[in-house]
Amino acid sequence: MKFTFLFIFGITQSLLIKHKSDNNYLSLYAEGAFTYVKLTPDEKEAVDVTFTPNKDGSVFIKNSQEPNKSFDIADNKDKLIMYNFHGGNNQQFMVSMVDNRKYKIINNGQCLDYDAESKKILKKTCTNSESQVFDIFDKNSEDSSAATDLNSEKIRYNMNEIEPVYELYTDRQLPRKKHHRHHHHHHHYDYDYE
What we know:
Number of helices: 3
Shape: globular
Protein name: Ricin B lectin
GO molecular function: carbohydrate binding
Keywords: Lectin
InterPro entries: Ricin_B-like_lectins
Order of helices and strands: EEEEEEEEEEEEEHHEH
Largest sheet: 8 strands, antiparallel
CATH class: Mainly Beta
Strand content: 35-45%
Helix content: under 10%
Low-confidence stretches: 147-194
């Protein structure tokens, strides 16, 4: 499975993450000693996150209200929790665009996946399942995803991950193609690929 990773340069605040297939927001809830990530239909309960870039292109997904807390894979196994920030591997995420407004969130080569049975977000083998597709957008402009909104200064695509055929396009052709297909409000390139 090929991924196109987003490289996020600047700290990107006030982001909400939505589980695409049922249109619910990621939110936090405490259970026992841990704060887990669940889904909610209520935007007011959604967790407001900040993407902080790490040197290798991964990001830390921090709680905007409590910047010392970060998304974390519990015990480096499979459950997504909000935990004290330490910057380890189990807190480093890659964001991959699968389509316009559709992203996978990847940790150590595995994808975050909403598990309907446990009602938790788990880390699982990446598949084409809708349960692994999320939208990430600026909460102050509901209609635009983070990659659309902030792309011009803060995000670029790792072109090496794209099928080689697209590398034949020159820089001159790409914007024209983009401009033709998407009008004023998109600042990134969409490719049709699997």
